[in-house]
Amino acid sequence: MQTIHTINDLRQALAGQRSVALVPTMGNLHQGHLDLVAMGRRHADTVVASIFVNRLQFAPTEDFERYPRTLANDVQALTEAGCSVAFAPDERELYPEPQGFKVTPPAEIADILEGAFRPGFFTGVATVVHKLFNIVQPQVAVFGKKDYQQWLIVQRMVSQMALPITIIGAETTRATDGLALSSRNGYLSAAELAEAPQLQLAMQRIVEEHRPANQRDPSAIAASADRARATLEQRGWQVDYLTVRRRADLQMPRSSSDSLVILAAAKLGSTRLIDNLEF
Ligand code: PAF
Q1: What structural domains and CATH numbers belong to the chain?
Q2: Which of 33, 43, 130, 210 is catalytic?
């Protein structure tokens, strides 16, 4: 595997490649990222994993400075996973001047849920992803469905901007106790790690309460979500949202035939976790 730090070197390395898959990451890689690389390998001859902690998507109060930078370990893991290229530009390479041109996703999809709690987050994400797409020019890009709203926004961006890229959504990789793998799990204490699977379990209980799938009353589902939220809060979680939405546009369900996804973000101590469950 090659590790490349500049746009010029990357373009040279990729010249003449028949099919390229991009796996954008912020590093501090875990098995979830490596599963995205494996997915990329199923769809392209060459897999580029980008490693870049993108300042644009962090609010001043967030963890940009303390976000773990673990390049040597990441390169080792990507090599073992059969990745072709690790693209790890520094900030001067990706943002040699303040990034005045930005990609702003529409408010109805970007200012809800994560966007409501992290203003500007999806503009930061869409801007860097669009820039990475321009640099790498992949035919395929793989995104984890754990970041469900991000995955949807990237799909919309690609569609509206007519970018010739197929976006693949990869299922969330979980620990055996159900906890979604995340770089931020490393911030959890042992007690918090033991509690963390409760977020996914709360969502599974909502699904259980609404089987069979053809008998889903939107207001009964919303009531289940409220109960799940209250249960988590009693256990000490600080819940930003726990809500059931339509998969297609993340708006509130209107009919019992909508395909749904439960989305949640909640803090355990000072660590904010997100997860989701389609049903
Ligand atoms: O999901 C992430 O790690 C980031 O949001 C991404 C897509 C790499 C953009 O910085």
Answers
A1: 2-170 (3.40.50.620), 183-273 (3.30.1300.10)
A2: 33
